[in-house]
């Protein structure tokens, strides 16, 4: 989950103390896309701006995967139950179906009707609060990747009324597309940040591995403070799923925008966020929602039991006494700078 995407943010940080590479200049392109911000930083001897080309990449992906864009491929599918996918939609759908199987159904792009039922969709909700139990039960009849069929580049559904929302994975995919675009231009050192989902390669202009800091809510949940230390990204991707950007409070319970596809209930546990490092941002983004739904102990156990996915994570959660604490997978600390 998510926004086209709204996540616990990561801010770019660099370290001092090294000489700038003489032949390369730090370049930056930034703007707004996919309902959030983006910043692309890279080192290049060519100072010609890539802004227009980067903007066009966002435009192409939005035409494929944006629920906000009338006529997009994803909206065509949701209206008709079938669509001829382009390369972007096909890559995202296939990754989503893989992750669905890998997590026992905890990641499911057919969750769209539930997202809207809980008031986190593109359109404004008709009411605020917990949906009636009978509404959740009726909506659950349309949830399940088992209803999707992929044949080549053709996507269809076996059940009328099934709709998809790729917001929980498309942003990470976009980050990697932008990274690959830079690499194809021969750029070897870059950092791509789209709404707090990032990928990095090489080093920054100070000859240091690109580093980011993770936002950490205060106990009062009104301000955000960085975790002590930075996270280094040596040719890795990183993504975060959290409950303190899009949520509503009912009684003493906070319900976040991440919806459990097996129960139909919005996230309401003690986890504030989980940040996942993987070989690429696409993978990190695919697994951050399932990991936050698993919870701290089960999520860390899952990472350790499945080394083939190359995941590491840090959980930030609220303890019973109200204090904010962190828990790490065993390999995550190698990326930390204390």
Question: How are the SSEs ordered, and which strands pair?
Answer:
Layout: E1 10-13, E2 25-33, E3 36-44, H1 51-65, H2 73-80, E4 82-84, H3 87-102, H4 112-117, H5 133-140, E5 148-151, E6 154-157, H6 170-184, E7 190-194, E8 197-201, E9 211-217, E10 224-226, E11 230-232, E12 237-242, E13 247-250, E14 253-256, E15 271-278, H7 281-294, H8 296-305, E16 312-318, E17 324-328, E18 336-337
Antiparallel strand pairs: 1-9, 2-3, 3-7, 4-6, 5-6, 7-8, 8-12, 9-10, 9-11, 11-18, 12-15, 13-14, 15-16, 16-17
Helix pairs in contact: 1-6, 6-7, 7-8
List keywords for this structure.
eight-stranded antiparallel β-sheet, 2 domains, 18 strands, 338 residues, 27% helix, 8 helices
Structural notes for this entry:
With 338 residues, the chain is an alpha+beta fold. The chain folds into two domains: 10-22 and 188-337, Roll (T-fold); 58-157, T-fold (Orthogonal Bundle), CATH 1.10.3980.10. It contains eight helices and 18 strands. Strands 2-3-7-8-12-15-16-17 form an eight-stranded antiparallel beta sheet. Strands 1, 9, 10, 11 and 18 form a five-stranded antiparallel beta sheet that branches. Strand 2 and strand 3 (36-44) form a beta hairpin. It starts with 9 loop residues before the first strand and ends with a strand. Mean pLDDT is 86; it is low at 1-18 and 221-226.
């Amino acid at each position: 989950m998510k926004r086209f995407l709204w996540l616990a943010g990561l801010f770019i940080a660099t370290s001092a103390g090294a000489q700038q590479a003489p032949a390369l200049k730090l370049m930056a392109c930034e703007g707004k896309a996919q309902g959030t911000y983006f910043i692309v930083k890279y080192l290049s001897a060519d100072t010609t701006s890539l802004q227009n080309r980067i903007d066009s990449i966002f435009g192409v992906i939005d035409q494929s995967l944006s629920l906000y864009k009338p006529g997009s491929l994803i909206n065509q599918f949701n209206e008709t139950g079938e669509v001829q996918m382009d390369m972007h939609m096909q890559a995202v759908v296939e990754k989503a179906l893989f992750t669905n199987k890998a997590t026992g159904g905890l990641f499911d792009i057919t969750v769209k009707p539930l997202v809207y039922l809980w008031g986190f969709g593109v359109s404004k909700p008709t009411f605020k609060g917990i949906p009636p139990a009978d509404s959740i039960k009726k909506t659950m009849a349309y949830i399940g990747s088992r209803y999707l069929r992929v044949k080549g580049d053709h996507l269809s559904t076996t059940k009328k009324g099934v709709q998809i929302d790729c917001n929980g994975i498309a942003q990470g995919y976009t980050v990697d597309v932008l990274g690959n675009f830079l690499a194809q231009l021969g750029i070897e050192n870059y950092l791509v940040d789209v709404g707090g989902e990032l990928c990095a390669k090489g080093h920054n202009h100070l000859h240091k591995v690109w580093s980011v800091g993770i936002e950490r809510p205060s106990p009062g949940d009104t301000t955000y403070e960085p975790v002590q230390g930075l996270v280094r990204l040596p040719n890795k991707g990183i993504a975060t799923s959290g409950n303190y950007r899009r949520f509503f409070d009912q009684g003493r319970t906070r319900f976040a925008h991440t919806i459990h596809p097996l129960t139909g209930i919005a996230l309401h546990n003690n986890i504030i966020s989980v940040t996942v490092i993987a070989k690429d941002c696409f993978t990190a983004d695919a697994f951050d929602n399932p990991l936050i739904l698993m919870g701290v102990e089960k999520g860390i156990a899952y990472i350790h039991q499945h080394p083939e996915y190359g995941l590491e994570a840090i959980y930030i959660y609220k303890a019973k006494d109200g204090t904010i604490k962190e828990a790490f997978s065993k390999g995550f600390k190698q990326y930390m700078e204390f």
